[in-house]
Design a protein that fits this description.
Elements: H1 21-26, E1 41-47, E2 53-59, H2 61-65, E3 69-74, E4 86-88, E5 91-93, H3 95-102, E6 107-108, E7 114-120, H4 123-132, E8 134-139, H5 146-150, E9 176-184, H6 187-192, E10 196-204, E11 216-221, E12 227-231, H7 236-247, E13 254-258, H8 274-284, E14 288-291, H9 294-300, E15 307-315, E16 321-333, H10 340-346, E17 356-364, H11 378-396, H12 400-406, H13 426-434, H14 437-440, E18 451-460, E19 467-473, E20 479-483, H15 491-503, E21 510-514, H16 531-558, E22 565-568, E23 571-574, E24 582-583, H17 584-588, E25 599-604, E26 612-622, E27 629-639, H18 646-665, E28 696-701, H19 723-735, H20 746-759
Helix pairs in contact: 7-8, 10-11, 11-19, 12-13, 15-16, 18-19
């Protein structure tokens, strides 16, 4: 294929109907909870009512005596594992901690922590059995605030935990799992050179991904030691590896079948129910299904971190940022592993800063273990940096987009972590935002309430990782594409379109399939905005291999050398002997006479990942009496590399923006003084609906990624990064109050406005 600059795409950039659409809109698609097997039992999990307590005893005898109950398991039946780190795609996993999170051993560490599980003939019997399990607890002091958890006098969650990443090693128990620092230049000199310095503190709440489909698992353990798991997951290979480690089973004995997935956003990249379903199936000899309730999803699966951040920036009169000092502590939940590292890597990504120091702390506390959530860690960090930059612009009298352009990252700029950017589109998003119809328009004034316009930028580094794909040619000249990437954002369509582009077919003539762990080579999780980039790369290579074989088959038929055969737009032709060209359909019907079927396979681990930048513009109206914020207009500008399917790119941007708006204005985990979550349902955990949002406008900027043959960058994560900061800046422009705590809910905004008026 020609280079991405020269090649004229025929399929890529068009908007075909997605291949899985009909099954989903007609209800034929099978999700995890739809799986039903002969003789299947139903499982339920008993969860802790306490935030922190020692388990003194568990009596399951009454539950086992209940008719219909076939098995009960506790944490004592899971193998004890040695501590260690296992790299699962973009997320490092400690199997010992993961096992303890799946089911508590000697202590429960958060409200909702699993304590026991039951398998019975119906979900109702299983539910009744849970009420018969007697657990004796010794309630312990708990800690829910990240700074209090770091204090010397804080209750210790994990007695064996020591801080990693420090030069001075201590044997003292701690809740600080790790710390890291990025630093360069001369911080003191940078701040001394500044004409204006702004420093603020920020607090963000723990929030959930809010996927509609709850976690589920169906497991069948066979007498020969082999087993099958059906599950809605972002990574069937990760489920296989983690179950193998947690249960000490050979990974090759576990087959994982990925069902359709009703949302994940990073929250379905690990395991909760799968090992329990396997263990219950092994114990009963029957298949076992487990499905969480919404309350269980919110109380006991991985939200993203709340955080405390201090951000200090200095700039000269012309707007040049001279120094940046950022201190961030992120909630890991009950076990180590917050995304604070990603927060440190992304905080200053859109900007050239020669003098900086970024400190990050990973802190455990009595809340559920966090998990990835769309650009994990970056939204928290951007709230601090982007609102302080807005304040710098105000004090210096510079347009907020212009100060970002003055300091904007470009090719050759050093990232906070050190490596220099290759070709990126940061400045292009700023220019597109500045020239947009939205930014040029006057502020709307619908009913006389205060209105304001805010902007913010965001950065996400994206991931590559490992992917496998297979492309096979059917006898009618169509093709199949088999990958190992669960489709959560239209990646079946994008992979089919990549194959169609190479093969000279239409998108509809390519049939994409997401395969189980025994039907395709290893593929890392659907996460990190990696699928269309990395799995698409594997599809591209596999399709190129299929083209090479098609040329070989044509050469055999024509009795010419392979180098004398050309393939272009789905047609094979002979360069120099006058043979009549053949379409792929004609050639496919003759493969049996020319060497046999044609397929191509590829496994890749691409390194040319293209980072992603976005700039958002938002207009808000604030009700000064109630503190309610109305989003009047929203525009998201993003460098998307090359939009394979523009509709799904726009959908990713709109979806991430909507989630960022929810995070900004309403969403939060609310715990009472006892450490019990009080809003564990969608009625009280307030996510935005279509009634809360305008039509989100998108502007796609295409700066091709030089590390991909088609110029592709991941697009799914950076849209969630700018919204809270952009909305905070808009609120300030409307009512003159700098909001530094998420969510900026009506009570918090009312309080801030009242405090401002009292100072007047």
């Amino acid at each position: 294929m020609e280079s991405q600059q020269e090649y004229k795409f025929k399929v890529i950039g068009t908007r075909p109907i997605r291949h899985d659409g009909v099954d989903k809109v007609t209800g034929r698609a099978k999700y995890g909870a739809d799986i039903s097997l002969p003789g299947m039992l139903h499982g339920k999990v008993l969860r802790s009512p306490h935030a922190h307590a020692r388990i003194k005893s568990i009596d399951v005898s009454a539950a086992l005596a209940l008719p219909g109950v076939k098995a009960v398991i506790t944490g004592q039946e899971l193998p004890e594992l040695a501590p260690g780190i296992y790299q699962m795609g973009e997320i490092p996993i400690n199997p010992q901690y993961l096992s303890r999170n799946i089911m508590a051993r000697d202590k429960v560490l958060y409200n909702g922590h699993a304590v026991a599980a039951v398998a019975a003939t119906s979900p109702h019997v299983a539910e009744d059995a849970l009420a018969l399990i007697k657990v004796e607890y010794e309630v312990l002091p708990h800690v829910l605030d990240v700074r209090k958890a770091m204090a010397d006098e804080a209750p210790i969650l994990l007695p064996d935990l020591r801080t990693s990443g420090t030069l001075e090693k201590s044997d003292k128990p701690t809740n600080v799992a790790s710390q890291l620092r990025f630093a360069r230049g001369d911080l003191a000199a940078g701040f001394k050179a500044a004409d204006v310095v702004v420093e603020r503190e920020f607090n963000t709440s723990m929030v959930h991904q809010g996927y509609i489909e709850p976690h589920n698992a169906v497991a069948q353990y066979n007498e020969d030691g082999h087993s099958t798991v059906w599950v809605s997951t972002q990574g069937q290979f990760s489920v296989r590896e983690l179950c193998a480690q947690i249960l000490k089973m050979p990974s090759s004995n576990i087959k994982v079948v990925p069902d359709e997935i009703g949302g994940g956003f990073g929250g379905k990249t690990t395991v909760y129910l799968e090992p329990l379903a396997l263990l219950l199936s092994k114990k009963t000899g029957k298949p076992v299904k487990l499905v969480m309730s919404r309350s269980e999803v919110l109380r006991a699966t991985g939200p993203t971190s709340g955080s405390y951040i201090r951000c200090k920036l200095g700039a000269t009169k012309d707007g040049t940022i001279t120094a940046a000092e950022i201190w961030m502590a992120y909630e890991a939940g009950a076990f180590p592993g917050s995304p604070v590292g990603a927060g440190c890597m992304t905080a200053l990504g859109p900007y050239v800063v020669d003098n900086l120091q970024i400190d990050g702390f990973d802190v455990v506390l009595n809340k559920p273990k966090t998990c990835a959530y769309r650009a994990p860690g970056a939204t928290n960090a951007a709230l601090g940096v982007e609102t302080v930059i807005d304040e710098l612009a105000e004090k210096l009298g510079i347009d907020p987009l212009e100060i970002r352009r003055i300091n904007g990252s470009q090719e050759g700029t050093a990232q906070p972590a050190g490596p220099k950017f290759l070709r990126i589109g940061c400045l292009e998003t700023l220019e597109a935002a500045k020239s947009s119809a939205h930014y040029k328009s006057p502020l709307p004034k619908p009913d006389g309430k205060p209105v304001g316009r805010g902007v913010a930028s965001g950065f996400w580094f994206n991931a590559g990782l490992q992917s496998s794909a297979a492309v096979s040619i059917n006898s009618d000249g169509t093709a199949n594409v088999v990958t190992g990437s669960p489709d959560i954002g239209g990646s079946r369509a994008s992979c089919a379109m990549i194959a169609a582009e190479v093969l000279g077919l239409t998108a509809e003539e390519v049939h994409p399939v997401v395969a189980d762990t025994e039907s395709i080579g290893h593929t890392d999780v659907t996460g990190g905005s990696r699928v269309t980039f990395a799995t698409g790369y594997a599809v591209y290579e596999a399709a190129q291999e299929a083209v090479r074989k098609l040329k070989q088959r044509a050469a055999t038929l024509w009795k010419v050398k392979e180098e004398d055969v050309a393939y272009q737009d789905g047609v094979v032709s002979c360069v120099n002997n006058g043979q009549e060209p053949m379409t792929l359909k004609q050639l496919a019907s003759k493969l049996v006479h020319a060497g046999g079927p044609v397929s191509g396979q590829a496994s890749v681990n691409p390194r040319g990942v293209g980072p992603c930048f976005a700039t958002h513009i938002v207009d808000v109206e604030v009700d000064p009496e109630t503190g309610k914020v109305e989003i009047l207009r929203y525009t998201a500008v993003q460098d998307v590399g090359k939009a394979v399917h523009p509709s799904y790119v726009e959908g990713q941007i709109q979806g991430g923006t909507a989630q960022g708006i929810g995070w900004a204005l309403n969403e939060e985990y609310y715990y009472d003084e006892s450490g019990t979550m009080r809003n564990s349902g969608f009625l009280d955990y307030r996510m935005p609906t279509c009634l809360d949002l305008p039509m989100i406008e998108t502007i796609l900027v295409e700066v091709p990624n030089p590390g991909h043959p088609l110029g592709i960058r991941g697009v799914g994560e950076v849209p969630i990064v700018p919204p809270p900061a952009a909305i905070a800046n808009a609120i300030y422009r409307a009512v003159g109050v700098r909001m530094t705590e998420l969510p900026m809910s009506p009570p918090k905004l009312c309080k801030a406005m009242a405090e401002k008026n009292a100072k007047k």
